[in-house]
Design a protein that fits this description.
Elements (H helix, E strand, L loop, with lengths): L6 E4 L1 E9 L1 H4 L11 E7 L8 E2 L9 H8 L1 H4 L1 H7 L5 E8 L5 E3 L3 H7 L7 E8 L5 E5 L5 H9 L7 E4 L6 E4 L5 E3 L3 E8 L5 E4 L15 H5 L20 E7 L4 E7 L3 E4 L7 E7 L1 E5 L4 E5 L3 E4 L5 E6 L3 E7 L2
Antiparallel strand pairs: 1-4, 1-20, 2-3, 3-5, 5-12, 6-13, 7-10, 7-12, 8-9, 8-11, 14-15, 15-22, 16-21, 17-20, 17-22, 18-19, 18-21
Length: about 325
């Protein structure tokens, strides 16, 4: 069997009623012929929506096929024992040109009871935010199901929700159960559990070009919602040049940030996990025992668990999200 190497994948693009053009204009992705691209799934093991390799001898293979073939060599022994042949992390870029629906995701326990696979906890890294852009995250005060339903029925739900004003470089942690939404003018990278379960509770009364509104899931959402408040999702951190800084550490994924303008050597020999690089700014060359290539803004790299060391040599100041399971 040929030696595993760091893998790049071809994105899967999703048209959304709230999508825009920034996948193309900011990240350089070609999502033709979609008029409004809201999401680019750049690393996905979601069944039926797996991304395919676009570099090296494994070009054309789907992600979960590779997990099944290479097992712990690709994802790590503990990760393979825990998740089997389904890759456990989904990485997206999201371009919100309008409000997303107010929504919530189930946690692992509720998802298991409903037979829908994993729950969905996620985090966001803000690449760009227009002046005045808003993020909804949880409730502005402690509430209960009756109060929530009353405000929802009156179409005043936003009045009891927590509003954040995101800026470029901000990090937001959205655990399963937290009601949330993106406002217009935001481009972000999302790291999440492998799941495509979203319960919409309010979609701003909008309809598509055929006059049809999107499906809501008010009853399914009710059991999923965490009613405690206030619930700020903003995750403070101090960016430091040429150092690895922790952002989010959960049972589902760990995310760190690397902001560097000189070569860095990363040693993963003690880590029993794959590592994902999500490049959110700049460009760098990477080199390891099995291959060498470049990684630029908007690209994602999957580093196999058997890769012990990798050297990053930036061609310009570069910022990368480093994701793994600890």
């Amino acid at each position: 069997m040929n030696e595993l190497y760091p893998l790049k994948f071809k994105p899967r693009f999703l048209e959304k009623i709230w999508g825009g053009e920034r996948m193309k204009t900011v990240l350089g992705m070609d999502f033709s012929p979609l008029p409004n691209c809201g999401e680019a799934w750049v690393l996905s093991g979601v069944p039926g929506s797996e991304t395919r390799v676009r570099n090296g001898f494994l070009k054309g293979n789907e992600l979960n096929e590779l997990v099944e073939i290479y097992m712990e060599d690709l994802v790590g022994e503990a990760t393979f024992e825990r998740f089997g042949s389904e890759f456990p992390i989904l990485v997206k870029f999201i371009d919100s040109n309008d409000y997303l629906s107010i929504q919530v995701h189930p946690d692992d326990a509720l998802a298991a009871r409903r037979g829908i696979g994993n729950g969905k906890s996620e985090m966001w890294y803000i690449l760009d935010a227009a002046p005045g852009a808003e993020i909804i995250s949880g409730f502005s005060r402690k509430t209960d199901a009756k109060t929530y339903l009353d405000f929802l029925e009156q179409k005043k739900l936003k009045d009891i929700l927590n509003i954040e004003k995101p800026e470029r470089g901000d990090v937001f942690n959205i655990p399963a159960g937290r009601i949330h939404a993106l406002g217009p003018g935001i481009l972000l990278a999302e790291i999440q559990q492998t799941s495509d379960t979203t319960y919409r509770v309010y979609d701003w009364d909008r309809v598509d070009e055929k006059g049809k509104s999107r499906e809501l899931h008010k009853e399914l959402a009710l059991e999923a919602i965490d009613f405690d408040g206030p619930q700020s999702a903003r995750t403070p951190y101090r960016r430091q040049l040429n150092k690895t800084i922790s952002l989010v550490d959960t049972p589902h994924f760990t995310t760190r940030i690397l902001n560097f303008d000189k070569p860095l050597r990363k040693d993963y020999s003690e880590l029993d996990s794959f590592v994902i690089y999500v490049c959110v700014e700049g460009k760098t060359r990477f080199e390891c025992a099995s291959s060498a290539d470049h990684l630029g803004k908007g690209e994602t790299l999957l580093i196999p668990a058997v890769t012990q060391q990798i050297v990053l040599s930036p061609t310009e100041e570069c910022t990368i999200l480093e994701v793994f399971i600890s």
